[in-house]
């Protein structure tokens, strides 16, 4: 997302210039760690700080940790937004904030392959509901909400280059208590798919899910464990894309950006980013796994979310809907 100075004119929170100046370095470092555009730091005064100010007021009135869900199509900027705001809350407002990504909650490769062999081969590819460890996610959510002062817990991490969960000693640690928990991911907040499951949507479904078993199981997961997980969300946010076609463009932009940084050297150590970059053609095939649910989300999430960021084709925020009772 790029800066739009008019975006938050309606917000009733004054942001001191001194606070923006003090946090600029923190935002720059966060963006650098994510390989995001350093130009996004210009959104600090127009978006990140006003939003963090509004969210901090919600934390004060919350009973326990505030769980903030953030969903949006692939490549829409969920990770960048949540991690920058989390950093701003911690450094600017003394609010303990953490980010939990659905990408770190996948089943282990062994468990996922076993599930694919048992239920449907397409579940071998991570991403869709059914490939996450929902039991672990629910346990993690409960533990974070009850984490007391001084208590420490580990947050799971997934290595995409190995297509498997990282060893426990490489997981990050968080010390309680936690004030804000961001849960971000492309299908966070998703509801059941509804009608039309009997008709294939793309070549992947037509060729590899002819009887609709895979997509029906995805829907079943949404109605069960995922529904329970998303029920913990206090504030739901959605990044609204202008159309489905732009989702490929955004994801391809991500892949090319990662490709450019794949062999960066930091401190003399080769950094491989723990990710495998896909070619444009491979990406088109990969996105067919997500297409049905992504289209469903784009048709339903704006009405089901508390905060909606409306993006144009250039990923600029052109509109915002948020609760007015602040």
Write the layout of secondary structure elements.
Layout: H1 17-33, H2 44-60, E1 66-71, H3 78-93, E2 97-101, H4 109-118, H5 134-145, E3 152-155, E4 158-159, E5 164-165, E6 172-175, E7 180-184, H6 203-208, H7 213-223, H8 225-230, E8 235-240, H9 245-261, E9 265-266, E10 269-270, H10 280-287, H11 291-304, E11 307-311, E12 317-321
Helix pairs in contact: 1-3, 2-3, 9-10
Question: Which structural traits does this protein have?
Answer:
326 residues, six-stranded mixed sheet, two-stranded antiparallel ribbon, disordered N terminus
What does this structure look like?
The protein has 326 residues and is α/β, with parallel strands linked by helices. Helix content is 41%, strand content 15%. It is built from eleven helices and twelve strands. A six-stranded mixed β-sheet has the order 2-7-1-8-11-12, sandwiched between helices. Strands 3-6 form a two-stranded antiparallel ribbon. The protein has a two-stranded antiparallel ribbon with strand order 4-5. β4 and β5 form a beta hairpin. α9 crosses α10. It is globular, with a radius of gyration of 20 Å. The N terminus is likely disordered.
């Amino acid at each position: 997302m790029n800066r739009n100075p008019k975006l938050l004119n309606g917000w009733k929170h004054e942001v001191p210039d001194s606070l923006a100046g003090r946090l600029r370095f923190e935002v720059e470092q966060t963006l650098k760690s994510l390989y995001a555009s350093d130009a996004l730091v210009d959104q600090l005064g127009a978006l990140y700080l006003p939003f963090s100010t509004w969210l901090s007021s919600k934390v004060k009135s919350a009973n326990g940790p505030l769980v903030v869900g953030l969903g949006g199509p692939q490549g829409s900027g969920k990770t960048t937004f949540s991690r920058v705001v989390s950093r701003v809350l911690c450094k600017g407002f003394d609010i303990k904030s953490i980010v939990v990504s659905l990408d770190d909650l996948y089943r282990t490769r062994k468990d996922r392959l076993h599930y694919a062999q048992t239920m449907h081969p397409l579940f071998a590819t991570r991403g869709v509901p059914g490939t996450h460890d929902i039991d672990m996610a629910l346990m993690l959510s409960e533990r974070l909400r009850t984490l007391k002062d001084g208590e420490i817990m580990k947050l799971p991490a997934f290595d995409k280059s190995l297509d498997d969960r990282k060893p426990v000693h490489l997981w990050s640690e968080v010390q309680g208590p936690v004030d804000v928990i961001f849960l971000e991911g492309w299908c966070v907040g998703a509801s059941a798919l509804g009608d039309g499951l009997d008709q294939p949507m793309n070549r992947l479904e037509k060729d590899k899910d002819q009887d609709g078993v895979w997509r029906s199981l995805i829907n079943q997961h949404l109605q069960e464990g995922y529904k329970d997980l998303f029920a913990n969300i206090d504030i739901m946010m959605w990044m609204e894309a202008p159309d489905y076609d732009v989702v490929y463009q955004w994801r391809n932009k991500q892949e090319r950006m990662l490709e450019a940084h794949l062999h960066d050297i930091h401190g003399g150590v080769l950094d491989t980013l723990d990710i495998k970059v896909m070619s444009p053609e491979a990406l088109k095939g990969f996105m067919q796994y997500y297409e049905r649910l992504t289209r469903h989300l784009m048709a339903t999430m704006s009405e089901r979310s508390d905060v909606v960021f409306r993006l144009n084709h250039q990923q600029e925020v052109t509109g915002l809907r948020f609760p007015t009772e602040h």
